[in-house]
Amino acid sequence: MDKGQNKVIIVLVDGMRPDGMVNTGHPFVRTIRERFSYTLKARTVEPSVTLPCHMSLFHSVDPARHGVTTNTYVPQVRPIKGLAEAIDGAGLSATFFYTWEELRDLSRPDSLAYSVLVNQHKRSDTDTEITRIALDYICAHEPDFAFIYLGETDEVGGHDAGWMSPTYEKSVSKALDCIERIFEQMPRGYSLIILADHGGHERSHGTTLPEDMTIPVCAFGPEFLPGHEFAGEVSIKDVAPTVAKLLGVKPPREWEGRPLY
């Protein structure tokens, strides 16, 4: 594939439940329904905890395989190349923009071309700030892959105030503002994938409850039919193979997910 024509942005909203997204009444939800292929019934992995879910997102295997089962990273016993390593190994550029420092372990040293952390535990309004930083870089340099993590929905909305509370829905709406800005300003030639790592209930997550396990997965680009609902089961493990296919990158043989197109 022509590397100049196939580029991908992932935006992950930590803890964004599909019904929480819909309940905001945000106009961008209508844009998703009309212009993206999507499902509001995708499943994350067990345990439905942030770092294990992100490891499964980037390595396309369950936590039982990659070995990260809590928010403390442990090196893999039988290492699997993740999405960042696969992209770098193909001679393409991978970039990260995030607000939760533990995500630094999603990629191995020297696999990222550029990364920025804005620590959500040290600063406020980090979703807006990291979105601005990411867009400035993407528009100026057009990397092949960008991962943008928005953490306030989980931290400020869910854990502090409770999932589905007014504060939670306000934080989801703010994240959708950020995603809408990315969608409108990203350069031509980019596909955009939007998802969550997990949901939540009351002021927690990590169980097998549907409220914790169900996530949205939405994809925009020439390969995805506008207004189409993905058929069958969709897993967070399917995202890395989808990105690899979009970029023309060979996925590691250990990956368990399947491309969404």
TrEMBL record:
One of its GO terms (molecular function) is hydrolase activity. InterPro entries: Alkaline_phosphatase_core_sf, Phosphodiest/P_Trfase. Pfam families: Phosphodiest. Gene3D superfamilies: Alkaline Phosphatase, subunit A (3.40.720.10). PANTHER family: BIS(5'-ADENOSYL)-TRIPHOSPHATASE, ECTONUCLEOTIDE PYROPHOSPHATASE/PHOSPHODIESTERASE. This is Alkaline phosphatase family protein.
